[in-house]
Amino acid sequence: MLEIRNLTKHFGPLKAVDGISFRVDRGEVLGFLGPNGAGKSTTMKMATGFLTPTSGTAVICGHDIQEDPLGAKRRFGYLPEGAPAYPDMTPAGFLAFVAEVRDIPAERRAQRIQEVVELVHLEKVLHQRVETLSKGFKRRVGLAQAILHDPDVLILDEPTDGLDPNQKHEMRLLIKHMAKNKAIVLSTHILEEVEAVCTRAIIIARGKVLFDGTPAELAERGPLDDVFRRITTGAEKALS
Amino acid sequence: MRNTLIILKRELGGYFATPVAYVFIVIFLVLSGVLTFFLGGLYEGEQATLQGFFGWHPWLYLFLIPAISMRLWAEERKQGTIERCS
Question: What's the pTM?
């Protein structure tokens, strides 16, 4: 459902992403791992059409993000890094705005917003301005915005970053709950998260894919922290 | 085009969510009055013309429009909400 084809991005002399390819199918939760600066966010930004790749492309449900950006963008939900939302709006106003932009029919809008709000537990802060919300609530507003139009593909950039353990747990349950009929890609640098929610893990560093397999395969090689360090520092040739 | 209107609505709403819109409305009214009567000389001209009123408008817009609109791109980029719009 989501296919990344040989994505490459150069920022001047720096190769931020260097020929990454993978595909994610329905029911899969792909954990996108890597140290800071490995190119995780850049890859996601290219997959969602925010950055133009130097070469390569991403195909979402058969729509090429380069050739048919509008068609592709309708089919995924994206939670950008830091879950940005307009600080002067309330979650209710923001979700209404997103629902309109996402072209949800007017008669179904209120009901759909209601469903999503219940799903991510935003009821308490619905009429409070976004700038006054805690990180956890902001993150949930971001997630609500991403799943509002019930997309087949979800791209989440560090969905649990900055949340407390309870909120992390809740976010993971939510992702698992949605995983059955969606293709989900999430980036993280928390290793336990991969074991907790992902069905597949990809480790990248310096813009290249260094590992692609199940979390179980990763765990076989020893303690996660050590394996991660060996792979990303280049001490182990890990491509499987 | 449809989305342009939705975004326009959001941005205009944004001005009224904070006092920005009201502050600028007051500044606009005060300045247009001052310019018309003190500098434009509406009465002194002794003619039935609004030249003194409209003549100053380009200058008002020249300063007021950039003052409220130039933050739009910058703010969107700073907050990261521009990624939503992509």
Answer: 0.85
